[in-house]
Specification:
The protein has one domain (18-263): 3-Layer(aba) Sandwich (Rossmann fold). It has 264 residues and is α/β, with parallel strands linked by helices. The protein has 8 helices and 7 strands, in the order βαβαβαβαβαβαβαα. It starts with 17 loop residues before the first strand and ends with a helix. It is globular, with a radius of gyration of 18 Å. Helix 1 packs across helix 6, helix 3 (73-87) packs parallel to helix 4 (110-138) and helix 4 (110-138) packs parallel to helix 5. InterPro entries: NAD(P)-bd_dom_sf, SDR_fam. This is Short-chain dehydrogenase/reductase SDR. Belongs to the short-chain dehydrogenases/reductases (SDR) family. Keywords: Oxidoreductase.
Length: 264
């Protein structure tokens, strides 16, 4: 498939597109589901909270609820098989599921580390093992991975969350390199701070805080333009990206100052 000047297929006509949003019971996933339903897409929403998922689609005729736990590989396979039987395939899978709590290194607990990484990283791998064989056989489809600007640099209070999102950034890059030639699109979504039940746990000021609806609008715009990386809000994400590109003697000093600011 030739994508021309764009790194990915431009998803401009959503009518009839079959989109599976995993981790869509609240926040970005829920807002994105509503935005795509409004554009005429068929949208399946998955997560562990059935009631919350039903509230997202609000009995929309093109909405489907499929309850599952991303930490269970068997759930991925069974849910994907059921969706493909109903829809005869999936055009775009969006990996939105995430766990987060502000955490300093000395607050680490083994159980929490396991659970967070199982949700944020392993869950994506379990999903890829379920959906990739069918997409590769069709030589069409797209994968959208929601990482974070927290994956750019070692930000304070992101002891588990930041490294897990850095892993997803790396994964999206290699997926694009490996799958582009097979006709698949890979989209990396790097939000800044978005108002949600997860960010509500933060006790510090969050610069350029966005609404989930604003985040969904930015994601749809990026998908429609065929971008590989969809990062927003741009002013904030560019600043964090710039810090990541500085020499360590500079960037680590800036991060130490930021950490002291969080502690004050």
């Amino acid at each position: 498939m030739a994508f021309g000047l764009h790194l990915n297929p431009r998803l401009r006509d959503w009518h009839g597109k079959r989109v599976w949003l995993v981790g869509a019971s609240s926040g970005i996933g829920a807002a994105l589901a509503k935005a795509l339903l409004a554009k005429g897409a068929w949208v399946a929403v998955s997560g562990r909270r059935t009631d919350a998922l039903l509230a997202v689609i609000e009995s929309h005729p093109k909405g489907v609820v499929l309850t599952m736990d991303v930490r269970r590989p068997d759930d991925w396979k069974a849910t994907h098989d059921a969706l493909c039987e109903a829809w005869e395939g999936v055009d775009l899978v969006v990996f939105c599921a995430a766990d987060y709590r502000p955490l300093r290194p000395w607050q680490l607990e083994a159980r929490e580390a396991h659970d967070t990484l199982e949700t944020n990283v392993c869950g994506v791998y379990y999903g890829l093992s379920a959906v990739l064989p069918r997409m590769l056989s069709r030589r069409s489809g797209g994968l959208a991975i929601v990482a974070s600007v927290a994956g750019y640099v070692g930000l304070p209070s992101a002891t588990l969350y930041g490294p897990s999102k850095a892993a997803l950034i790396n994964l999206a890059e290699l997926l694009y390199a490996e799958l582009h030639a097979h006709g698949l699109g890979v989209y990396l979504i790097n939000p800044g701070f978005v108002k949600s039940r997860l960010t509500a746990r933060n006790d510090f000021r969050m610069p350029a805080l966005m609404t989930p609806e604003g985040a969904a609008e930015a994601i749809v715009a990026g998908l429609e333009r065929g971008r590989f990386e969809i990062a927003f809000p741009q002013r904030f994400t560019r600043l964090v990206r710039l810090i990541s590109l500085l020499p360590y003697r500079v960037s680590l000093g800036l991060l130490q100052r930021l950490t002291r600011h969080h502690e004050s």
